[in-house]
Amino acid sequence: MSEAEEIPLWEVFIRPRNGLAHRHCGSLHAADAEMALQAARDVYTRRGEGLSVWVTPSAQIVASDPQDRGSLFDPAEDKIYRHPSFYEIPDDVGHM
Amino acid sequence: MPASLVTALIGLADDHLILGHRLSEWCGHAPMLEEDLAMPNIALDLIGQARALYSYAGELEGAGRDEDALAFGRLERAYRNLLICELPNGDFAHTMLRQFYFASFMQLFWQAAEQSADATLAAIAAKAVKEAEYHRRHCAQWVIRLGDGTDESVRRMAEAVALLAPYTGEFFIADQDTCDVIAGGILPDTQTLQPAWQADVEQVFAEARLVPPKDVYAQKGGRRGVHTEAMGHLLAQLQFMQRSFPDMTW
Lengths: 96, 250
What we know:
The complex is a heterodimer. Helix content of chain A is 22%, strand content 21%. Chain A is α+β, with helices and mostly antiparallel strands. Chain A has a domain at 3-65: Phenylacetic acid degradation B (Ubiquitin-like (UB roll), Roll). Chain A has a three-stranded antiparallel beta sheet, with helices on one face. In chain A, a hairpin with a 7-residue loop joins strand 1 and strand 2. The mean pLDDT of chain A is 88. By secondary structure, chain B is mainly α. Chain B has one domain (2-244): Ferritin (Up-down Bundle). The radius of gyration of chain B is 18 Å and the shape is globular. Chain B starts with a helix and ends in a 6-residue tail after the last helix. Classes of the chains: A alpha+beta, B mainly alpha. The A-B interface holds A 3, 7, 28-32, 34-35, 38-39, 42-43, 46 and B 31-35, 37-38, 41, 137-138, 141, 145.
């Protein structure tokens, strides 16, 4: 067995600042959750990128099938009224 | 007091420089990408701590030696690092166990040094203790996983325990040259840290299903500048640039 098969893959999410959401930033190999968290710290927060880290086993992520793109996403295309572009957002609101 | 404090600071800085250099040798050679970043990360922390200590030692000494002069400009016998820091890396298990021993010791050391009567040292300790805490956690996790892992990792970890056993006693041996620094409340008395260090090692070993070594003769001499055969080879690499191009910068 190759090393990649033995050691599970994890997805890493970093929250850069208070008030922002965690964002997916990449993946890594680690033997278990604790090691994955440490590796994420070492691999993805070297330049002060984060205040919080999440890791999750890649195998636990359920993804949409690219072939379903048409039926999943195309129906939203002609519903322009759903975009909040008709409002003025006050500056004080900040990130939404 | 200043002379023995300078001596003590240089010894402590040497521990960090030499072990940091050893660890940096793994850069590009680690068993997986994640560790290839983690080990140089730890090495950089150690070298950063060495810089702070050398700079302060040079300032107290007042002889015009800066951190570079102290790090690169001395002969082997003038280095006062613990022997465990200069030992060749061996395999990954050996490196991780050594790093765990050292980080566990330094975490306790810096925790105590935060109460130092010397404000600069207390500040260095406050920064370093967070780094040491992370190093200890990271390396302890590997010791546990390798010690309680596959047949091969169990065998290699047991070998590392045997090979390193003679080199941990030196952490706690009193250093005659610097005992007044301890009496003055400037640096911790390492002998008082031994029970807590022992307890930490035993707890991790229990989880790792490793058998702690017993009654091993403690090798010593590092603090007096009497080093192992490995030290000269290490310094040849470490000092090459400054010896070839004195005072070079980039």
